[in-house]
Amino acid sequence: MVSATKYQILSLTLCFFTLSCSAFTSKDYADALAKSILFYEGQRSGKLPSSQHLTWRGDSGLSDGSSNHVDLVGGYYDAGDNVKFGLPMAFTTTLLSWSVIEFGSSMPSQIGNARAAIRWSTDYLLKAATATPDTLYVADPNMDHKCWERPEDMDTPRNVYKVSKQNPGSDVAAETAAALAAASIVFKDSDPSYSAKLLQTAMKVFDFADSYRGSYSDSLGSVVCPFYCSYSGYHDELLWGASWIHMASNNASYLAYIQSNGQTMGANDDDYSFSWDDKRAGTKVLLSKDFLEKNTEEFQLYKRHSDNYICSLIPGTSSFQAQYTPGGLLYKGSSSNLQYVTSTAFLLLTYAKYLSTKGGSVSCGTSTVTAEGLISEAKKQVDYILGDNPAKMSYMVGFGGKYPQHVHHRGSSLPSVRTHPDHIPCSNGFQYLYSSSPNPNVLVGAILGGPDNRDNFADDRNNYQQSEPATYINAPFVGALAFFSAN
Question: Exposed, middle or buried by CB within 10 Å (0-12, 13-18, 19+), for 320?
Fold first, then answer.
């Protein structure tokens, strides 16, 4: 007899391959993919290129780092503010790179734009990692958050801080190493010399992270907390960073490092979310690749724990523990919930890809979940974000006929420097934050925090938990959209 779970998964698989079951076409996914990458132009800091498509943005942060006599111009503003936080920017870069590594072949028309989005960040991360020996620079958010102003108008102090031997930051440093290593894979064929520079720097930054251990939350305090406090500690980033350098370099010492340190750095921990703070689930899936594709026995442990993570997400299995809204959206928390949805959808698709190489599956007690079942679960989440939800609203700005109009984003909510060239001072901008008018500049491609646990969404600029975008929400979604645009 076929179990109910197997029958459910079979029906989902059949539905997946029929056009009548899909709310969106390949063309829709391709449109969303292009917009998800275009979003990063709206987050750019520094001197904008002539190829800039979001022309309501202008140059900004052109003296960043000058107070410390270093060049820290460039990079991305993390969300709706004008701060370049190191930890989420590095994580964004790692996930954008992973999206291209796994699904770059499914985005031929966008691969150049995707590489450009990654390079805008890696160019900055290289500066932050190499400006001074044994240091890594990060930014100060406190003064910025007292203002509501366009990045082009910033007149607040652009203080920078650094982690060093004396003030360690293994979490932000190891994530930076992961980002540079992952990006080195992206550029290996298209720009070998740049790829080599990224990998060499990744190794140096990782050595710094591992040699001088400590959390940047402890070293820098209010500069990073409560904004991007490293709640999970730094062990997860060290294992994550080593894993990416292992993947990029095939250097045996990193395999040895993973084998020697995995147990103390979370290899046996089952964790059920994947975010800028906690890398454990992502590391398990990444390392399971070598077991599934190359039969590297040392990584069988990571396949087992990846299965545990997957089983926790699948309704009807004995290990199911995830929470879903009545409309079917994965729900992890009230603030920026869609960051967990996009990262989960990406891991489901990536693990499905790894499983497919050898016809593998996931065992959840008495239930068996196939790669097609994982794809089906991911598709539900992707489609919900794009508008197949109770509100019939797309949570990607500029996609579909109905999307949020009051985005918690400084540059998008104030008049553009193109239409209002006069300076708008710090406190004068708050009238635009509190305005009931739609944002004058459309932040195309931005995925917002999203609805609550009852599928309710307040299109309210003041409700930053729901209406603020972030670079790390979009990054894994790029890979997911690339997959569905081609499948």
Answer: middle
How long is the chain?
487
Indicate whether this model's pTM tops 0.85.
yes
- Taking phi over 0 as left and psi of -120 to 50 as alpha, with beta for the rest, 195 belongs to alpha
CB 349 within 8 A of CB 375: yes
**Torsion angle in degrees (nearest 10) through CA of 79, 81, 84, 86:** -50
* 3-state helix vs strand vs coil in the chain, percent to 5: 50, 5, 45
| Upstream peptide bond of 226 is cis (omega within 30 degrees of 0) | yes
Q: CA-CA distance, 33 to 486, in Å (whole number)?
A: 11
pLDDT < 70 regions, the chain: 1-21, 138-140
Per-residue model confidence (pLDDT) at position 115: 98
Write the CB contacts of 36 (distance below 8 Å, at least 6 apart in sequence). Answer: 396, 445, 447, 474, 477, 478, 481
Please identify which residue in the block is written with the tokens 């460039």.
74
- Give me the residue label for tokens 């059920």: 272
For 438, which DSSP code? P
CA-to-CA distance for 402 and 415, rounded, in angstroms? 22
d(CA 189, CA 129): 24
Catalytic positions: 81, 408, 459, 468
- Tokens read off for 360: 């593998």
Residue 2 is predicted with a pLDDT of: 38
Please classify residue 304 by burial: count the beta carbons closer than 10 Å to its beta carbon, then call 0-12 exposed, 13-18 middle and 19+ buried.
middle
What is the DSSP code string of 350-397? HHHHHHHTTT-EEEETTEEEEHHHHHHHHHHHHHHHHT-STT---SBT
Residue 353 · residue 102 · CB < 8 Å: yes
Strand bridging mode 160-163 / 361-364: unpaired
Place of tokens 């500069």: 223
